Amino acid sequence: MVDLMDKHEKTVMGNICKIADNKCTIVFKDLRNDQYAIRYFHDENSNEKLDTNVLGIPKEGFGFSNDAFGKFGPKDFKEWLFEVSGDTKLRMTTKYL
Fold it and tell me: How many independent structural domains does the chain possess?
């Protein structure tokens, strides 16, 4: 499950993608040249939510654009932002705890 957000932290588009061979390719079309951010998680049990333990720690894989992981959660939102100018490709690493 993927959220594409604008620079104001508002979700612009969402998508559900299949994982094959430990990879997932997501295409967002017709974006304006601007700054965006992505957050996502691997919905391993297909319940459409990020499952967490009693302490709120994710039990499923998750990630952010720019691999913006902090020590106790994601880095500040501005660290997620990336620039879109024409065709833009990103690679992100999913974190499993």
Answer: 1
Tens of pLDDT, residues 1-21: 999 999 999 999 999 998 889
40 by DSSP, 3-state: which?
Answer: strand
Q: Are 92 and 67 in contact (CB under 8 A)?
A: yes
For residue 21, is it left (φ>0), alpha (ψ between -120 and 50) or beta?
A: left
Tell me how far CA of residue 34 lies from CA of 47, 80, 86, in angstroms: 32, 13, 10
**Residue 32, in any domain of the structure:** yes
Q: What's this model's pTM, rounded to 2 decimal places?
A: 0.91
Q: Is residue 79 classed as helix, strand or coil in its secondary structure?
A: helix
In a domain, 96, yes or no: no
Whether 31 and 50 have beta carbons less than 8 Å apart is answered as no
Domain that holds residue 62: 2-84
